Amino acid sequence: MREQTWVIIGGGQAAAVAAASLRSAGFQGRLVLIGDEQHLPYERPPLSKEVLVKPEKASLTIHPESFYAENAIECRLGVAAVGLDAEQQVVTLADGSVISFDRLLLATGARARAYPLLDHLGSGVHTVRSLDDAEQLRGHIWPGRRVLVVGGGVIGLEIAASAITMGAEVTVIERNSRLMARGAPQALADILLQLHRDNGVRFVFGAEITEAGKAGNGEINLLLASGETLSGDLVVYGIGVELNVELAVSAGLHVEDGIITNIHGQTSHPHIYAAGDVARQWNPDLQACVRHETWGNAQAQGAAVARAMVTGEPCPQEVPWYWTDQYGQNFQIAGRHTADEWLVRGDRATGKYTLLGLTDGIVTGAMTVNNGREMRPAKALIAARGRIPHGVEICNPGQDLRKLVALCA
Amino acid sequence: MEKIFVCLTADLPPGEARRVDCDPAVAVFNLDGTIYALADRCTHGEASMSDGYLEDDCTVECPVHTARFCLRTGRALTQPATVDLKTFEVLEDGDSLYVLVPTGESQ
Ligand SMILES: Cc1cc2nc3c(=O)[nH]c(=O)nc-3n(C[C@H](O)[C@H](O)[C@H](O)COP(=O)(O)OP(=O)(O)OC[C@H]3O[C@@H](n4cnc5c(N)ncnc54)[C@H](O)[C@@H]3O)c2cc1C
Ligand code: FES
Hints:
- The complex is a heterodimer of chains A (409) and B (107).
- Chain A folds into three domains: 5-111 and 241-311, FAD/NAD(P)-binding domain (3-Layer(bba) Sandwich); 114-237, FAD/NAD(P)-binding domain (3-Layer(bba) Sandwich), CATH 3.50.50; 328-408, Enolase-like, domain 1, CATH 3.30.390.
- In chain A, helix 1 packs parallel to helix 9 and helix 10 packs parallel to helix 11.
- The longest helix of chain A is centred in the C-terminal third of the chain and has 17 residues, at 295-311.
- Chain A contains eleven helices and 26 strands.
- Chain A has helices spanning 13-24, 50-53, 65-70, 116-119, 131-138, 154-165, 186-198, 246-250, 295-311, 375-383, 401-408; strands at 5-9, 30-35, 73-77, 81-85, 90-93, 98-100, 103-106, 110-112, 125-126, 146-150, 169-173, 202-204, 209-214, 220-224, 229-232, 234-237, 241-243, 259-261, 272-274, 279-283, 288-290, 321-326, 329-335, 341-345, 353-359, 362-369.
- Chain A is an alpha/beta fold and 409 residues long.
- In chain A, strands 3-2-1-7-19 form a five-stranded parallel sheet. A five-stranded parallel sheet of chain A has the order 9-16-10-11-12, covered by helices on one side.
- In chain A, 45% of the residues are buried.
- By secondary structure, chain B is mainly beta.
- Chain B has one domain (2-101): 3-layer Sandwich (Rieske Iron-sulfur Protein).
- Chain B is built from no helices and nine strands.
- Chain B has strands at residues 2-8, 17-20, 26-31, 34-39, 53-55, 59-61, 68-70, 87-93, 96-101.
- Chain B is globular and about 40 Å long.
- Chain B starts with a strand and ends in a 6-residue tail after the last strand.
- In chain B, 41% of the residues are buried.
- The interface between A and B is medium-sized, with 24 and 20 residues.
- Bound molecules: flavin-adenine dinucleotide and FE2/S2 (inorganic) cluster.
- Flavin-adenine dinucleotide (FAD) binds at residues 9-15, 34-37, 44-45, 47-48, 80-81, 107-110, 128-129, 155, 244, 247, 276-278, 293-296, 298, 322-324 of chain A.
Protein backbone atom coordinates (compact mmCIF):
# COMPACT_ATOMS: atom_id res chain seq x y z
CA MET A 1 0.00 0.00 0.00
CA ARG A 2 1.18 3.52 -0.78
CA GLU A 3 2.35 5.38 2.32
CA GLN A 4 -0.10 8.03 3.45
CA THR A 5 1.01 11.64 3.87
CA TRP A 6 -0.72 13.69 6.53
CA VAL A 7 0.07 17.39 6.81
CA ILE A 8 -0.39 19.85 9.66
CA ILE A 9 -0.36 23.54 8.82
CA GLY A 10 0.50 25.78 11.77
CA GLY A 11 3.38 25.57 14.18
CA GLY A 12 1.65 26.46 17.45
CA GLN A 13 0.23 24.64 20.46
CA ALA A 14 -2.54 22.83 18.63
CA ALA A 15 -0.22 21.74 15.81
CA ALA A 16 2.51 20.43 18.10
CA VAL A 17 0.15 18.56 20.37
CA ALA A 18 -1.71 17.13 17.38
CA ALA A 19 1.51 15.83 15.83
CA ALA A 20 2.31 13.94 19.03
CA SER A 21 -1.24 12.69 19.33
CA LEU A 22 -1.33 11.40 15.72
CA ARG A 23 1.69 9.26 16.52
CA SER A 24 0.41 8.03 19.86
CA ALA A 25 -2.94 7.17 18.25
CA GLY A 26 -1.08 5.00 15.77
CA PHE A 27 -0.59 6.98 12.56
CA GLN A 28 2.55 5.56 10.98
CA GLY A 29 2.70 7.31 7.61
CA ARG A 30 4.61 10.41 6.58
CA LEU A 31 3.81 13.36 8.85
CA VAL A 32 4.72 16.93 7.85
CA LEU A 33 4.34 19.98 10.09
CA ILE A 34 4.47 23.36 8.34
CA GLY A 35 4.99 26.47 10.44
CA ASP A 36 5.78 29.95 9.21
CA GLU A 37 7.73 30.95 12.32
CA GLN A 38 11.44 30.09 12.49
CA HIS A 39 11.04 28.44 15.87
CA LEU A 40 9.91 24.97 16.78
CA PRO A 41 6.40 25.14 18.29
CA TYR A 42 6.50 26.92 21.65
CA GLU A 43 4.15 27.92 24.46
CA ARG A 44 2.61 31.36 23.96
CA PRO A 45 1.31 32.11 27.49
CA PRO A 46 4.77 33.09 28.83
CA LEU A 47 5.19 35.74 26.09
CA SER A 48 3.31 38.43 28.01
CA LYS A 49 4.71 37.26 31.35
CA GLU A 50 8.06 35.53 31.97
CA VAL A 51 9.54 36.34 28.55
CA LEU A 52 9.25 40.03 29.45
CA VAL A 53 10.02 39.91 33.15
CA LYS A 54 12.46 37.04 33.66
CA PRO A 55 13.34 35.55 30.27
CA GLU A 56 15.91 33.18 31.76
CA LYS A 57 13.08 31.46 33.62
CA ALA A 58 10.62 31.30 30.74
CA SER A 59 9.71 27.73 29.93
CA LEU A 60 8.60 27.68 26.31
CA THR A 61 9.24 24.17 25.06
CA ILE A 62 6.25 22.10 23.96
CA HIS A 63 8.34 19.14 22.79
CA PRO A 64 12.12 18.99 23.03
CA GLU A 65 13.85 19.24 19.66
CA SER A 66 14.73 15.54 19.66
CA PHE A 67 11.05 14.64 19.89
CA TYR A 68 10.37 15.55 16.28
CA ALA A 69 13.10 13.33 14.84
CA GLU A 70 12.30 10.49 17.23
CA ASN A 71 8.69 10.55 16.08
CA ALA A 72 9.46 11.08 12.40
CA ILE A 73 7.73 14.45 12.32
CA GLU A 74 9.10 16.36 9.34
CA CYS A 75 9.18 20.03 10.34
CA ARG A 76 9.13 22.65 7.61
CA LEU A 77 9.76 25.80 9.64
CA GLY A 78 10.03 29.41 8.54
CA VAL A 79 7.93 28.77 5.49
CA ALA A 80 4.22 29.57 5.15
CA ALA A 81 1.66 27.48 3.36
CA VAL A 82 0.34 29.89 0.74
CA GLY A 83 -1.99 27.72 -1.31
CA LEU A 84 -4.50 25.00 -0.52
CA ASP A 85 -6.30 23.07 -3.23
CA ALA A 86 -8.93 21.00 -1.43
CA GLU A 87 -10.06 19.22 -4.61
CA GLN A 88 -6.57 18.00 -5.55
CA GLN A 89 -5.47 17.72 -1.88
CA VAL A 90 -2.33 19.73 -2.43
CA VAL A 91 -0.61 22.39 -0.30
CA THR A 92 1.76 24.93 -1.83
CA LEU A 93 4.47 26.53 0.30
CA ALA A 94 5.98 29.99 0.03
CA ASP A 95 9.24 28.51 -1.28
CA GLY A 96 7.35 27.03 -4.20
CA SER A 97 7.37 23.44 -2.99
CA VAL A 98 4.20 21.41 -3.24
CA ILE A 99 2.98 18.65 -0.91
CA SER A 100 0.15 16.27 -1.70
CA PHE A 101 -1.75 15.09 1.34
CA ASP A 102 -4.18 12.36 2.21
CA ARG A 103 -5.31 14.24 5.30
CA LEU A 104 -4.70 17.78 6.46
CA LEU A 105 -5.05 19.51 9.82
CA LEU A 106 -5.40 23.29 9.83
CA ALA A 107 -4.04 24.69 13.10
CA THR A 108 -3.15 28.15 11.85
CA GLY A 109 -4.31 29.99 14.96
CA ALA A 110 -4.63 33.73 15.02
CA ARG A 111 -2.64 36.94 14.83
CA ALA A 112 -2.98 40.16 16.78
CA ARG A 113 -5.79 42.28 15.39
CA ALA A 114 -4.24 45.29 13.70
CA TYR A 115 -4.99 48.85 14.80
CA PRO A 116 -4.11 50.96 11.74
CA LEU A 117 -4.49 54.25 13.61
CA LEU A 118 -1.62 53.18 15.88
CA ASP A 119 0.34 51.11 13.36
CA HIS A 120 0.95 54.13 11.15
CA LEU A 121 3.17 55.56 13.91
CA GLY A 122 5.74 52.90 13.06
CA SER A 123 8.39 52.29 15.71
CA GLY A 124 7.29 52.52 19.34
CA VAL A 125 4.09 50.57 18.69
CA HIS A 126 3.96 46.90 19.69
CA THR A 127 1.69 43.86 19.79
CA VAL A 128 2.52 40.51 21.38
CA ARG A 129 1.56 37.32 19.59
CA SER A 130 4.89 35.70 18.76
CA LEU A 131 8.17 35.10 20.56
CA ASP A 132 9.83 37.58 18.23
CA ASP A 133 7.22 40.22 19.18
CA ALA A 134 7.80 39.63 22.89
CA GLU A 135 11.59 39.72 22.66
CA GLN A 136 11.43 42.92 20.71
CA LEU A 137 9.10 44.53 23.23
CA ARG A 138 11.32 43.47 26.14
CA GLY A 139 14.13 45.62 24.81
CA HIS A 140 11.92 48.71 24.96
CA ILE A 141 10.74 48.52 28.56
CA TRP A 142 12.93 49.72 31.41
CA PRO A 143 12.48 51.56 34.71
CA GLY A 144 10.75 54.89 34.28
CA ARG A 145 9.51 54.22 30.72
CA ARG A 146 5.98 55.42 30.17
CA VAL A 147 4.02 52.57 28.63
CA LEU A 148 0.58 53.12 27.16
CA VAL A 149 -1.34 49.84 27.02
CA VAL A 150 -4.31 50.00 24.69
CA GLY A 151 -6.92 47.36 25.51
CA GLY A 152 -7.92 46.14 28.96
CA GLY A 153 -8.29 42.48 28.01
CA VAL A 154 -6.24 39.60 29.35
CA ILE A 155 -3.21 40.27 27.17
CA GLY A 156 -3.23 44.02 27.87
CA LEU A 157 -3.46 43.41 31.61
CA GLU A 158 -0.69 40.82 31.60
CA ILE A 159 1.57 43.19 29.71
CA ALA A 160 0.66 46.00 32.12
CA ALA A 161 1.58 43.77 35.08
CA SER A 162 4.87 42.81 33.45
CA ALA A 163 5.77 46.39 32.57
CA ILE A 164 5.06 47.52 36.15
CA THR A 165 7.23 44.69 37.44
CA MET A 166 9.97 45.95 35.11
CA GLY A 167 9.71 49.40 36.70
CA ALA A 168 7.76 51.18 34.00
CA GLU A 169 4.90 53.66 34.47
CA VAL A 170 1.78 52.16 32.96
CA THR A 171 -1.52 53.56 31.75
CA VAL A 172 -4.21 51.19 30.48
CA ILE A 173 -6.59 52.68 27.96
CA GLU A 174 -9.87 50.84 27.57
CA ARG A 175 -12.76 51.72 25.28
CA ASN A 176 -15.30 49.91 27.45
CA SER A 177 -16.40 50.92 30.93
CA ARG A 178 -14.88 47.78 32.46
CA LEU A 179 -11.93 45.42 32.04
CA MET A 180 -12.04 42.10 30.17
CA ALA A 181 -15.52 42.75 28.85
CA ARG A 182 -15.14 39.99 26.28
CA GLY A 183 -13.81 37.20 28.37
CA ALA A 184 -14.24 37.27 32.14
CA PRO A 185 -16.77 37.50 34.94
CA GLN A 186 -17.30 40.98 36.35
CA ALA A 187 -16.05 39.65 39.68
CA LEU A 188 -12.64 38.89 38.16
CA ALA A 189 -12.53 42.23 36.38
CA ASP A 190 -13.10 43.94 39.73
CA ILE A 191 -10.39 41.93 41.49
CA LEU A 192 -7.87 42.62 38.73
CA LEU A 193 -8.69 46.32 38.58
CA GLN A 194 -7.96 46.63 42.29
CA LEU A 195 -4.79 44.56 42.01
CA HIS A 196 -3.47 46.73 39.17
CA ARG A 197 -4.36 49.96 40.94
CA ASP A 198 -2.58 48.73 44.06
CA ASN A 199 0.48 48.22 41.89
CA GLY A 200 0.33 51.70 40.46
CA VAL A 201 -1.36 51.23 37.09
CA ARG A 202 -3.48 54.12 35.92
CA PHE A 203 -6.71 53.37 34.03
CA VAL A 204 -8.65 55.41 31.52
CA PHE A 205 -12.06 53.87 30.77
CA GLY A 206 -14.54 54.75 28.06
CA ALA A 207 -11.60 56.01 26.02
CA GLU A 208 -11.96 56.42 22.27
CA ILE A 209 -8.65 57.24 20.58
CA THR A 210 -9.29 59.76 17.83
CA GLU A 211 -5.76 60.70 16.85
CA ALA A 212 -2.30 59.27 17.37
CA GLY A 213 0.88 61.21 16.76
CA LYS A 214 4.60 61.03 17.42
CA ALA A 215 6.79 63.98 18.36
CA GLY A 216 10.31 64.51 17.04
CA ASN A 217 11.81 63.05 20.22
CA GLY A 218 9.77 59.86 19.75
CA GLU A 219 7.14 60.70 22.36
CA ILE A 220 3.77 59.22 21.45
CA ASN A 221 0.61 61.22 22.00
CA LEU A 222 -2.86 59.71 21.93
CA LEU A 223 -5.73 62.12 21.69
CA LEU A 224 -9.00 60.85 23.15
CA ALA A 225 -12.52 61.82 22.17
CA SER A 226 -12.88 63.31 25.66
CA GLY A 227 -10.22 65.85 24.70
CA GLU A 228 -7.60 64.33 26.98
CA THR A 229 -4.13 63.60 25.56
CA LEU A 230 -2.09 60.69 26.89
CA SER A 231 1.65 60.72 26.33
CA GLY A 232 4.09 57.87 26.56
CA ASP A 233 7.36 56.44 25.29
CA LEU A 234 5.75 53.40 23.74
CA VAL A 235 2.38 51.84 23.02
CA VAL A 236 1.45 48.19 23.34
CA TYR A 237 -1.96 47.20 22.15
CA GLY A 238 -4.03 44.06 22.59
CA ILE A 239 -7.44 44.47 21.05
CA GLY A 240 -8.27 40.89 20.13
CA VAL A 241 -7.21 38.67 17.26
CA GLU A 242 -7.76 38.06 13.60
CA LEU A 243 -8.01 34.42 12.65
CA ASN A 244 -5.61 32.92 10.14
CA VAL A 245 -8.41 31.59 7.94
CA GLU A 246 -7.21 32.80 4.54
CA LEU A 247 -6.12 29.34 3.35
CA ALA A 248 -9.40 27.78 4.46
CA VAL A 249 -11.41 30.48 2.74
CA SER A 250 -9.40 30.18 -0.48
CA ALA A 251 -9.98 26.42 -0.44
CA GLY A 252 -13.73 27.00 -0.22
CA LEU A 253 -14.14 25.53 3.29
CA HIS A 254 -17.04 26.65 5.44
CA VAL A 255 -15.68 29.55 7.49
CA GLU A 256 -17.76 31.69 9.82
CA ASP A 257 -15.84 33.31 12.66
CA GLY A 258 -13.51 30.33 12.47
CA ILE A 259 -13.30 27.17 10.41
CA ILE A 260 -16.51 25.27 11.06
CA THR A 261 -15.96 21.65 12.10
CA ASN A 262 -18.12 18.79 13.27
CA ILE A 263 -17.52 16.89 16.50
CA HIS A 264 -14.65 15.00 14.86
CA GLY A 265 -12.90 18.22 14.02
CA GLN A 266 -13.69 17.66 10.36
CA THR A 267 -14.25 20.73 8.19
CA SER A 268 -16.69 20.89 5.29
CA HIS A 269 -14.10 18.82 3.37
CA PRO A 270 -13.95 15.26 4.76
CA HIS A 271 -10.14 14.99 4.58
CA ILE A 272 -9.41 18.39 6.08
CA TYR A 273 -9.62 18.97 9.82
CA ALA A 274 -9.12 22.03 12.03
CA ALA A 275 -8.21 22.63 15.68
CA GLY A 276 -7.18 25.36 18.09
CA ASP A 277 -7.90 29.09 18.05
CA VAL A 278 -8.88 28.94 14.37
CA ALA A 279 -11.52 26.20 14.68
CA ARG A 280 -15.17 26.45 15.60
CA GLN A 281 -16.27 22.99 16.64
CA TRP A 282 -19.77 21.58 16.99
CA ASN A 283 -20.75 21.18 20.63
CA PRO A 284 -23.76 18.88 21.05
CA ASP A 285 -24.49 20.10 24.59
CA LEU A 286 -24.82 23.67 23.41
CA GLN A 287 -26.23 22.73 19.99
CA ALA A 288 -23.88 25.27 18.48
CA CYS A 289 -20.37 25.60 17.07
CA VAL A 290 -18.01 27.22 19.55
CA ARG A 291 -14.52 28.64 19.34
CA HIS A 292 -12.06 29.34 22.14
CA GLU A 293 -8.86 31.32 22.23
CA THR A 294 -7.25 29.49 25.11
CA TRP A 295 -4.22 27.33 25.74
CA GLY A 296 -6.44 24.65 27.27
CA ASN A 297 -8.54 24.45 24.13
CA ALA A 298 -5.55 24.33 21.78
CA GLN A 299 -4.06 21.59 23.93
CA ALA A 300 -7.19 19.46 24.35
CA GLN A 301 -8.63 20.00 20.90
CA GLY A 302 -5.31 19.54 19.13
CA ALA A 303 -4.96 16.15 20.80
CA ALA A 304 -8.61 15.14 20.37
CA VAL A 305 -8.91 16.08 16.69
CA ALA A 306 -5.68 14.25 15.90
CA ARG A 307 -7.03 11.17 17.65
CA ALA A 308 -10.29 11.55 15.74
CA MET A 309 -8.32 11.66 12.47
CA VAL A 310 -6.86 8.25 13.29
CA THR A 311 -9.70 6.51 15.13
CA GLY A 312 -12.83 8.28 13.91
CA GLU A 313 -13.93 8.83 17.52
CA PRO A 314 -15.74 12.05 18.40
CA CYS A 315 -13.88 14.67 20.40
CA PRO A 316 -14.81 14.81 24.09
CA GLN A 317 -16.30 18.15 25.11
CA GLU A 318 -14.32 20.10 27.67
CA VAL A 319 -15.59 22.80 29.99
CA PRO A 320 -14.07 26.06 28.65
CA TRP A 321 -11.21 27.10 30.89
CA TYR A 322 -8.23 29.42 30.97
CA TRP A 323 -5.78 30.98 33.35
CA THR A 324 -4.05 34.29 33.62
CA ASP A 325 -1.04 35.09 35.79
CA GLN A 326 -0.55 38.65 36.98
CA TYR A 327 1.84 39.95 39.66
CA GLY A 328 2.69 36.36 40.56
CA GLN A 329 -0.95 35.49 41.24
CA ASN A 330 -2.84 32.77 39.39
CA PHE A 331 -6.45 33.21 38.28
CA GLN A 332 -8.41 30.44 36.57
CA ILE A 333 -11.82 30.76 35.00
CA ALA A 334 -14.10 27.98 33.77
CA GLY A 335 -17.57 27.72 32.31
CA ARG A 336 -19.95 30.62 31.85
CA HIS A 337 -18.82 34.13 32.76
CA THR A 338 -22.20 35.38 33.86
CA ALA A 339 -24.23 33.97 36.73
CA ASP A 340 -27.15 34.94 38.95
CA GLU A 341 -24.92 34.73 41.97
CA TRP A 342 -21.30 33.94 42.86
CA LEU A 343 -20.69 31.89 46.02
CA VAL A 344 -17.39 32.50 47.74
CA ARG A 345 -15.66 29.37 48.97
CA GLY A 346 -12.89 30.27 51.38
CA ASP A 347 -11.79 33.56 52.85
CA ARG A 348 -11.08 36.30 50.33
CA ALA A 349 -8.77 37.98 52.82
CA THR A 350 -6.34 35.05 52.54
CA GLY A 351 -5.95 35.71 48.81
CA LYS A 352 -6.71 32.05 48.15
CA TYR A 353 -10.30 31.15 47.34
CA THR A 354 -12.82 29.87 44.81
CA LEU A 355 -15.93 31.47 43.37
CA LEU A 356 -18.78 29.30 42.11
CA GLY A 357 -21.29 30.86 39.72
CA LEU A 358 -24.91 29.72 40.04
CA THR A 359 -27.55 30.15 37.35
CA ASP A 360 -31.04 28.92 38.20
CA GLY A 361 -29.50 26.95 41.04
CA ILE A 362 -27.07 25.12 38.75
CA VAL A 363 -23.30 25.56 38.93
CA THR A 364 -22.40 27.10 35.55
CA GLY A 365 -19.10 28.84 36.21
CA ALA A 366 -16.10 28.86 38.51
CA MET A 367 -13.11 30.98 39.28
CA THR A 368 -10.11 30.16 41.44
CA VAL A 369 -7.76 32.75 42.87
CA ASN A 370 -4.42 31.13 43.78
CA ASN A 371 -6.43 28.00 44.41
CA GLY A 372 -5.98 25.96 41.25
CA ARG A 373 -6.31 22.61 42.97
CA GLU A 374 -10.06 23.28 43.23
CA MET A 375 -10.45 23.91 39.52
CA ARG A 376 -10.62 20.25 38.56
CA PRO A 377 -13.56 19.43 40.88
CA ALA A 378 -15.20 22.75 40.01
CA LYS A 379 -15.04 21.87 36.32
CA ALA A 380 -16.54 18.47 37.10
CA LEU A 381 -19.38 20.24 38.87
CA ILE A 382 -20.01 22.47 35.85
CA ALA A 383 -19.86 19.52 33.45
CA ALA A 384 -22.38 17.61 35.57
CA ARG A 385 -24.70 20.67 35.72
CA GLY A 386 -24.60 20.11 39.46
CA ARG A 387 -27.10 21.52 41.93
CA ILE A 388 -26.05 22.12 45.48
CA PRO A 389 -28.41 20.17 47.75
CA HIS A 390 -29.68 21.69 50.95
CA GLY A 391 -27.26 21.09 53.79
CA VAL A 392 -24.14 20.71 51.63
CA GLU A 393 -21.69 23.30 52.87
CA ILE A 394 -20.15 24.13 49.55
CA CYS A 395 -18.65 27.38 50.87
CA ASN A 396 -16.81 25.70 53.72
CA PRO A 397 -13.21 25.29 52.56
CA GLY A 398 -12.67 22.80 55.38
CA GLN A 399 -14.77 20.37 53.35
CA ASP A 400 -12.99 18.72 50.43
CA LEU A 401 -14.57 20.08 47.25
CA ARG A 402 -14.05 16.74 45.52
CA LYS A 403 -16.24 14.98 48.05
CA LEU A 404 -18.87 17.71 47.87
CA VAL A 405 -18.95 17.41 44.10
CA ALA A 406 -19.97 13.78 44.43
CA LEU A 407 -23.01 14.91 46.42
CA CYS A 408 -24.02 17.58 43.90
CA ALA A 409 -23.69 15.81 40.57
CA MET B 1 21.86 11.67 52.75
CA GLU B 2 20.11 13.89 55.19
CA LYS B 3 17.06 12.49 56.96
CA ILE B 4 14.47 15.22 57.24
CA PHE B 5 11.37 14.99 59.42
CA VAL B 6 8.11 15.47 57.50
CA CYS B 7 5.33 14.93 60.04
CA LEU B 8 3.69 12.25 62.11
CA THR B 9 2.41 9.52 59.81
CA ALA B 10 -1.03 10.04 61.31
CA ASP B 11 -0.96 13.67 60.21
CA LEU B 12 -0.78 12.80 56.53
CA PRO B 13 -4.03 10.98 55.77
CA PRO B 14 -4.83 9.61 52.28
CA GLY B 15 -5.44 12.31 49.70
CA GLU B 16 -3.33 14.85 51.57
CA ALA B 17 0.02 16.47 50.89
CA ARG B 18 2.71 18.18 52.94
CA ARG B 19 5.45 20.55 52.01
CA VAL B 20 8.83 20.21 53.65
CA ASP B 21 10.70 23.50 53.60
CA CYS B 22 14.16 22.08 53.13
CA ASP B 23 16.30 23.16 50.19
CA PRO B 24 15.06 22.19 47.70
CA ALA B 25 11.53 22.00 49.13
CA VAL B 26 9.96 18.55 48.97
CA ALA B 27 6.29 17.67 48.51
CA VAL B 28 5.11 14.52 50.29
CA PHE B 29 1.87 12.86 49.23
CA ASN B 30 -0.31 10.11 50.62
CA LEU B 31 -2.19 8.35 47.85
CA ASP B 32 -4.36 5.62 49.31
CA GLY B 33 -1.83 4.83 52.00
CA THR B 34 1.29 4.90 49.84
CA ILE B 35 3.65 7.80 50.51
CA TYR B 36 5.51 9.54 47.67
CA ALA B 37 7.96 12.43 47.73
CA LEU B 38 8.76 14.76 44.83
CA ALA B 39 10.48 18.09 44.42
CA ASP B 40 7.90 20.67 45.48
CA ARG B 41 8.66 23.33 42.85
CA CYS B 42 6.92 22.60 39.53
CA THR B 43 9.50 22.35 36.75
CA HIS B 44 7.36 24.66 34.63
CA GLY B 45 7.12 27.62 36.99
CA GLU B 46 6.81 28.69 40.56
CA ALA B 47 3.94 26.49 41.69
CA SER B 48 4.15 24.38 44.80
CA MET B 49 3.23 20.79 43.92
CA SER B 50 2.02 20.15 47.46
CA ASP B 51 -0.88 22.45 46.51
CA GLY B 52 -1.53 20.22 43.51
CA TYR B 53 -4.40 17.96 42.70
CA LEU B 54 -3.82 14.31 43.56
CA GLU B 55 -5.30 11.87 41.10
CA ASP B 56 -6.18 8.24 41.59
CA ASP B 57 -3.98 7.21 38.65
CA CYS B 58 -0.87 7.97 40.72
CA THR B 59 -0.31 11.44 39.29
CA VAL B 60 -0.37 14.94 40.67
CA GLU B 61 -1.56 17.94 38.69
CA CYS B 62 0.13 21.31 39.07
CA PRO B 63 -2.32 23.80 40.55
CA VAL B 64 -1.19 26.64 38.29
CA HIS B 65 -1.16 25.39 34.66
CA THR B 66 -2.24 21.76 35.14
CA ALA B 67 0.93 19.93 34.06
CA ARG B 68 0.72 16.36 35.35
CA PHE B 69 3.54 14.39 36.92
CA CYS B 70 3.89 10.73 37.85
CA LEU B 71 4.09 10.34 41.64
CA ARG B 72 6.28 7.26 41.33
CA THR B 73 8.89 8.49 38.86
CA GLY B 74 8.40 12.27 38.80
CA ARG B 75 7.97 12.08 35.06
CA ALA B 76 6.38 15.10 33.36
CA LEU B 77 3.37 13.56 31.60
CA THR B 78 1.61 16.54 30.05
CA GLN B 79 2.27 20.04 28.81
CA PRO B 80 3.13 22.65 29.71
CA ALA B 81 5.86 20.89 31.73
CA THR B 82 8.53 18.97 29.85
CA VAL B 83 11.09 18.50 32.61
CA ASP B 84 10.64 15.74 35.19
CA LEU B 85 10.42 16.36 38.93
CA LYS B 86 13.08 14.85 41.17
CA THR B 87 11.89 12.06 43.42
CA PHE B 88 13.00 11.48 46.99
CA GLU B 89 13.05 8.44 49.16
CA VAL B 90 10.53 8.26 52.00
CA LEU B 91 11.25 6.59 55.30
CA GLU B 92 8.78 5.59 57.97
CA ASP B 93 10.46 5.46 61.35
CA GLY B 94 8.30 4.79 64.38
CA ASP B 95 5.29 7.03 64.15
CA SER B 96 7.00 9.57 61.90
CA LEU B 97 7.67 10.19 58.22
CA TYR B 98 11.03 11.32 56.88
CA VAL B 99 12.43 12.12 53.45
CA LEU B 100 16.00 11.39 52.46
CA VAL B 101 17.55 14.36 50.73
CA PRO B 102 21.04 13.89 49.29
CA THR B 103 23.53 16.07 51.12
CA GLY B 104 25.09 18.66 48.87
CA GLU B 105 21.77 18.80 47.06
CA SER B 106 21.00 22.07 48.78
CA GLN B 107 23.15 24.97 47.74
C1 LIG C 1 0.81 36.75 24.68
C2 LIG C 1 -0.18 35.63 24.87
C3 LIG C 1 -0.46 35.16 26.15
C4 LIG C 1 -1.38 34.13 26.34
N1 LIG C 1 -1.64 33.71 27.61
C5 LIG C 1 -2.54 32.72 27.81
C6 LIG C 1 -2.84 32.27 29.13
O1 LIG C 1 -2.27 32.75 30.12
N2 LIG C 1 -3.76 31.29 29.29
C7 LIG C 1 -4.43 30.74 28.23
O2 LIG C 1 -5.26 29.86 28.42
N3 LIG C 1 -4.16 31.14 26.95
C8 LIG C 1 -3.25 32.12 26.73
N4 LIG C 1 -2.98 32.55 25.44
C9 LIG C 1 -3.71 31.93 24.33
C10 LIG C 1 -3.02 30.70 23.77
O3 LIG C 1 -1.65 30.91 23.69
C11 LIG C 1 -3.61 30.38 22.40
O4 LIG C 1 -4.96 30.08 22.57
C12 LIG C 1 -2.89 29.22 21.73
O5 LIG C 1 -1.57 29.59 21.45
C13 LIG C 1 -3.59 28.81 20.45
O6 LIG C 1 -2.85 27.82 19.81
P1 LIG C 1 -3.02 27.50 18.27
O7 LIG C 1 -2.04 26.42 17.97
O8 LIG C 1 -4.43 27.28 17.95
O9 LIG C 1 -2.63 28.83 17.49
P2 LIG C 1 -1.29 29.68 17.50
O10 LIG C 1 -0.60 29.57 18.80
O11 LIG C 1 -1.68 31.02 17.00
O12 LIG C 1 -0.36 28.98 16.42
C14 LIG C 1 -0.59 29.03 15.05
C15 LIG C 1 0.72 28.96 14.33
O13 LIG C 1 0.51 28.74 12.95
C16 LIG C 1 1.30 29.61 12.19
N5 LIG C 1 0.65 29.80 10.88
C17 LIG C 1 -0.48 30.50 10.61
N6 LIG C 1 -0.78 30.46 9.29
C18 LIG C 1 0.18 29.70 8.71
C19 LIG C 1 0.43 29.28 7.36
N7 LIG C 1 -0.37 29.62 6.37
N8 LIG C 1 1.52 28.52 7.13
C20 LIG C 1 2.33 28.15 8.13
N9 LIG C 1 2.15 28.52 9.41
C21 LIG C 1 1.09 29.28 9.70
C22 LIG C 1 1.34 30.85 13.05
O14 LIG C 1 2.42 31.70 12.69
C23 LIG C 1 1.54 30.24 14.43
O15 LIG C 1 2.87 29.94 14.67
C24 LIG C 1 -2.05 33.56 25.22
C25 LIG C 1 -1.77 34.04 23.94
C26 LIG C 1 -0.85 35.05 23.74
C27 LIG C 1 -0.56 35.55 22.36
S1 FES D 1 3.82 26.17 37.08
FE1 FES D 1 3.26 24.08 37.02
S2 FES D 1 2.46 23.84 35.05
FE2 FES D 1 3.09 25.90 35.06
